[in-house]
Design goal:
Strand order of the largest sheet of chain A: 7-6-5-8-9-11-10
Oligomer: homodimer
CATH class of the largest domain in chain A: Alpha Beta
Number of strands of chain A: 11
CATH architecture of the largest domain in chain A: 3-Layer(aba) Sandwich
Number of domains of chain A: 2
Structural class of chain A: alpha/beta
Radius of gyration of chain A: 23 Å
Distance between the termini of chain A: 47 Å
Chain lengths: 412, 412
């Protein structure tokens, strides 16, 4: 935040008509939501009839100006720093803002332009990708252990019933993926982006397959190798510290859960070529990713502070992976509400362990992380984000199940 | 066929080196399949080692030249006229040709260009659409009754097990669609393109909904109305002879089975607007359509003689319906092999009733129709065509099932 103007010297002065005009302008940019802005002198600005209990407290005048310049970026920055606060419930506030953003009649730029901009500027070359992934995943395994499940699944769980525990739902997610891939003992699997390696170990242990798994996060690779060794799975599972673009060999199955968000749309054709060259003729593949209903950009604060280089694709964009390689899409399932529930579990564990987290991280980090979790719950709840699981196979494979009933036989 | 050169005068002469060069050129255009061409003088041309039992008999020299000009168009024309014949099995011949077409290293134009060309030239304005639909569906209901099921479903059936009868599989298809839409008694449904009206009647009878159904084929509308009256469903089902673009009102459910093939990609945004304006906030929609793995063109003979104006979309193209309206795609299922099986049933019934069909239609019509059925079996078997069912809902609807298990509860 060193670059931000943070002089609080003029806070004693009353908010003038220009400040109120700026506040109304911000509300207008985000689509006129039913929110109240409380300025630094305690005066309130609303749009419409002003009936709302959702209040944004803006503690200093420069904070108001920064919000006007780029509300989606500076909301996160200022909230982390404690220069703005919310009354009436963070979730309700974010849901109201997100719904207004979706309903905006004239977005600043059209979806198509977003799509091109993403292709131009989100590069994610081998080096950039390594740097971005380091920034997010190498904060420290201990931090993630505080609020993820035992298998350290940092992706959407599968709540076959909404009252499942997080542990059950993460195992159900892995089984749902394995059933979609129709894993059989002895098969070879390649995994692109393995997180802390939980899916690879689950596949090896429960389905008897061999897995070669790729990831560029150094801390995650070390963690995954140690756990595989401890659990006696290091003969079946090989964790490789390398980029998906360097995958070599031929496999029965390709799987990638939660990596595509980091790939960048301009690299989708390359990913398609990698998949097609490593998948056998009768092979099966699955990509599990955060996505969107239409091309658009990631919230710029998340993209700057939490997930550098991240861009969740629309289905039309994802098709660039498959179409030029004549890969055939067999099944797409949207699990949006499952991600909202997963994130609620994470937030609740995060809050339960806040004492331990505070021992190592400062208040700014904690406020940023809490906003990220709440903001993500809101994005999945209001339909700003989706969760797609896409099953695919080479275009001439006829070794296909007659229905998807096998996914639901005696399901947990 | 009046425009074709059909002088058979030079058939007595031997095929020369130029004829053989032309024959090899044709094989090269379609990707060098392992097929033999037998020229008008009985001499044989093959590519590679020449080991094949699949032989195309080309009875006259101009037929060879027409094949060279546009093999995908004139193959159908010449076969219907009896100027070419096949030895070694029609299906095997078509599968071999289709696989070669898919594997061609350098297609004549790229998928993107196909996509633009389709947008430019396949217009399907209100008048053109009416003309095209008339050409295919108003041949006579009696003809289709000879080989369709009792409910006159002229779309892909759903073989939960591959040994189901066609009657069972067509009812299972309608139930699969209704389950995906989560129909409840008393709901209002709008159907775009209803064929002979079987799905609308099934929905009304079994699920207790009211259906307003649109179709521009005069013969089909008359047939559907009569059957609804006979079956006591004319209070619940209203069949309207009009274009989908004229749908008005608000409904719980939008459904369209087998119409999108006739819409044309340039009209997808209009279709999206129609859907969004007629679907309630918590409404559900389903589109069932023939599609492709990547943008491309319909076989030109089918597009000329069988389905004028038809173009099966790639998934990326279909997304134009949904993305600009913030409709959220919940589920895409690919039922390609179900269509191959459906077509095998149709072909078998067609052949069983060939005596009755011959009383009304000439040999050219019968050969054309048989080629169309066999060619379609081959296209779905070899992955040249796909069958997509897409379920969608307005982007903020959270009234969604937690899993798709309900589709498979005690399934027929």
């Amino acid at each position: 935040m060193g670059k931000l103007i943070s002089t609080h010297t003029d806070n004693a002065t009353e908010a003038g008509s220009f400040d109120r005009w700026v506040a109304r302008k911000i509300l207008s940019i985000i689509g006129n939501p039913a929110l109240a802005f409380v300025l630094h002198d305690g005066s309130t600005v609303t749009i419409g009839d002003g009936q709302t209990s959702l209040r944004l407290l803006i503690h200093d005048r420069p904070a108001l100006w920064l919000l006007a310049i780029n509300p989606e970026l500076y909301f996160g920055e200022l909230y982390s720093e404690g220069r703005i606060d919310l009354e009436g419930g963070l979730s309700e506030f974010l849901n109201t803002a997100n719904r207004a953003l979706t309903a905006r009649k004239s977005p600043v730029v059209s979806g198509l332009i977003y799509s091109w901009v993403k292709q131009l500027f989100i590069n994610n070359s081998l080096d950039t990708a390594r740097h971005n992934i380091h920034q997010h995943y190498d904060i420290g395994n201990a931090f993630y252990e505080k609020w993820l499940d035992r298998e350290m699944q940092y992706t959407c769980a599968y709540f076959a019933a909404p009252d499942c525990t997080l542990e059950q739902a993460q195992i159900a997610k892995m089984d749902h993926v394995c059933r979609k891939l129709r894993l059989e003992p002895g098969q070879s699997v390649v995994e692109a982006g393995f997180g802390w390696g939980g899916l690879a170990r689950h596949m090896a242990r429960k389905y008897g397959v061999r897995v070669k798994a790729y990831n560029i996060s150094h801390e995650q690779v070390a963690y995954a190798r140690q756990r595989a060794k401890n659990e006696g799975l290091d003969e079946q599972v090989e964790y490789i510290e390398d980029d998906y673009r360097n995958i070599r060999g031929e496999f029965d199955v390709f799987v990638s859960v939660g990596m595509l968000e980091h790939v960048g749309t301009r690299n989708y054709k390359v990913l398609g070529r990698v998949i097609n060259s490593c998948l056998k003729e009768k092979g099966m593949g699955l990509i599990h990713t955060i996505g969107r209903n239409r091309p658009g950009y990631m919230n710029p604060w998340i993209a700057k502070r939490i997930f550098p280089g991240a861009c969740p694709p629309a289905i039309s964009e994802m098709m660039n992976i498959f179409e030029s390689e004549n890969l055939s899409v067999l099944d797409i399932e949207n699990l949006r509400l499952h991600y909202a529930t997963t994130l609620e579990h994470w937030l609740s564990r995060f809050n339960d362990n806040i004492g331990q987290i505070r021992e190592k991280y400062d208040e700014k980090f904690i406020r940023a992380w809490r906003l990220y979790l709440c903001g993500s719950i809101s994005a999945f709840t209001t339909g700003r984000l989706q969760l797609y699981q896409v099953v695919f196979t080479p275009g001439e494979n006829n070794n296909l199940p007659w229905s998807r009933a096998h996914l639901y036989d005696s399901h947990q």
